[in-house]
Each structure stands twice: as structure tokens, then as C-alpha cells.
Amino acid sequence: MSRAQCPRCLRPQSHCLCELIPQLDSRTRVLLLQHPSEVNHALNTARLAALGLKNAELRVGETFDDLDVLLNPPGYQARLLFPGDDAQLIETPSSSEGSQPWLLVVPDGTWRKARKLLHLNPLLAQLPRVTLAPGAVSRYRLRKAPGPGALSTLEAIVQTLDILEAPHSFTPLLRPFEALIEGQIAAMGHDTFQRNHGQT
């Protein structure tokens, strides 16, 4: 028999994260486009981001029929958070820049699945790309990152918003993420964690 599930955070009721999820305002609007394979992932950090940000929306699918509408909300300029040769480094906006806030479009999935989302949705590939500075370190200690600067979707959003909306901090969004990681470490046992994931 399956365990009762929280309908909001989709975690088992015994491990519900809702008390840790903040409700943060942001000038930036965040649109998360999640590949269906990520929905049942143990962490599902895109859902945590969508729940913790009032100005965010989560859509699940491989293609999105209303993408043109989603990418053009009145008063915003869309940017795709995804690395690429033409991606601009995200920097703190200067007062001289345009006052129009960003619609930050974030594909959520493995790198292969995220690239597939861009391939299947040409409107995404046409957006101006932005990326974070290299060298960021993920807090996800249970998985070896595929390369330097590889962050979870939630971590990438937090770092981006911290830059765009400084000095406002979006670190509270990471609380449920860190609780999930601590829960996984506790479930495997400290010795097992140290043996498999401890620093050498």
C-alpha cells in the first residue's frame, strides 16, 4: 500500500516539506518548464521553487501549445537560463538599464532532457540566453555533479535571483532542499554517507 502523499509538495505526509517552504515575492517572474521524467524525482527542486515563489509558474510537458503566450507576459522581457556560446553572464542590473523585469525561463531536467525541451520548442531556442558565472558549488552532496558549476534547478534560480534582485536574498528557498538532503543522509546512515560521499 502506498504512503499518503501531501498534495502540495508531493512528499509522503510523514516527510511533508510545506512548513519549510517560504512565500517570497520577486520582481522577476520565473517560468519553469519541467520535463515529465522529473515529476517523480526524489528532489523535484523545480516544484520547490514554484511553491516558494509567488511570481512563478510550473508547467510539465515536452511541448507547450501556449508557449507563445507563456513567453510574453505583459511588462516582462524573457530570458532563457541555459548555458551556450552566446549566453550572457548574469550581472546585477545597473540603474541605467531598462526597468522592465525579466521573465526567467528555466528548463528543468537532465542536461539531455533540457536540450530536448529546447529542440522540441523552437521558441525557447530563440530566446536570449543567460548563464551564471562558472565555479558555483552545489549543496547536493549525494550526487557527483557532471561538471563544475552544475547546480540543481532550485539552486540556479536562487543564485540568479540573488544577483538580479540584490540585496534581497532568496536563500530561504533552499531550506526544504537542504532538509531533503539531510533526510536522505539520515536514511542511508552516517557511516554509509561518509564511505560513499565523504570528502577524501
Automatic annotation (TrEMBL):
It comes from Pseudomonas lundensis. Its EC number is 2.5.1.25. This is tRNA-uridine aminocarboxypropyltransferase. It holds the Pfam family DTW. Residues 2-189 form the DTW domain. It comes from the Bacteria. Belongs to the TDD superfamily. DTWD2 family. The keyword Metal-binding does not apply. InterPro entries: DTW (IPR005636), DTWD2/TAPT (IPR039262). It is an enzyme of class 2 (transferase).
